[in-house]
């Protein structure tokens, strides 16, 4: 499945997320990538999906799910890319507001806070 097709399926699944139906396959797929350390693929998904016009609940899920997990697992590797994208994309910078500290390393977290503090 191509990235765009997957992103569309993931957004639909998260939009329709229901506590009674369990975890959608698209979210399970991302979790599987994360568990296998396939961070580049997760990053590509996040970048691509973050540029869409997402409903607020989906954007929040993207921030507090895949993006937060990526930064907690591989923040030092991706923080420079996060900074660059946040400076180039208001949508992505807004998305960062939904990331919680979780297990994100202190140095990475401080750099994220600096991004959010900048105009």
Description:
The protein has helices at 3-15, 25-35, 39-50, 56-88, 90-96, 106-117. It is mainly alpha-helical and 119 residues long. The mean pLDDT is 93. It is globular. It contains 6 helices and no strands. Helix 4 crosses helix 5 (90-96) and helix 4 packs across helix 6 (106-117). The N and C termini lie far apart (38 Å). It has one domain. 74% of the residues lie in helices and 0% in strands.
Protein topology:
Layout: H1 3-15, H2 25-35, H3 39-50, H4 56-88, H5 90-96, H6 106-117
Helix pairs in contact: 1-3, 3-4, 4-5, 4-6
Helix amount, in percent? over 70%
Largest beta-sheet characterization? none
**Per the principal axes of the C-alpha atoms, what is the gross shape?**
globular
Q: Compute the number of structural domains.
A: 1
From the helix content, strand content and strand pairing, which structural class follows? mainly alpha
Ranges where pLDDT stays below 50 over 5 or more residues in a row are: none
Integer average pLDDT: 93
Strand content: under 5%
- Radius of gyration based on Cα positions: 14 Å
Structure characteristics:
119 residues, mainly alpha, 6 helices, 74% helix
Concise overview:
This protein has about 120 residues and is mainly alpha-helical. It has helices at about 5-15, 25-35, 40-50, 55-90, 90-95, 105-115. Helix 1 packs across helix 3 (about 40-50), helix 3 (about 40-50) packs across helix 4 and helix 4 (about 55-90) crosses helix 5.
């Amino acid at each position: 499945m191509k990235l765009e097709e997957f992103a569309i399926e993931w957004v639909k699944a998260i939009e329709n997320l229901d506590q009674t139906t369990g975890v959608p396959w698209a979210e399970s797929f991302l979790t599987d990538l994360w568990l296998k350390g396939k961070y580049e693929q997760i990053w590509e998904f996040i970048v691509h999906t973050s540029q869409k016009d997402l409903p607020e609940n989906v954007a929040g899920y993207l921030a507090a799910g895949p993006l937060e997990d990526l930064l907690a697992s591989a923040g030092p590797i991706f923080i420079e890319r996060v900074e660059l994208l946040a400076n180039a994309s208001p949508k992505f910078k807004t998305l960062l507001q939904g990331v919680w500290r979780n297990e994100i390393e202190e140095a990475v977290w401080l750099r994220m806070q600096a991004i959010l503090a900048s105009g």
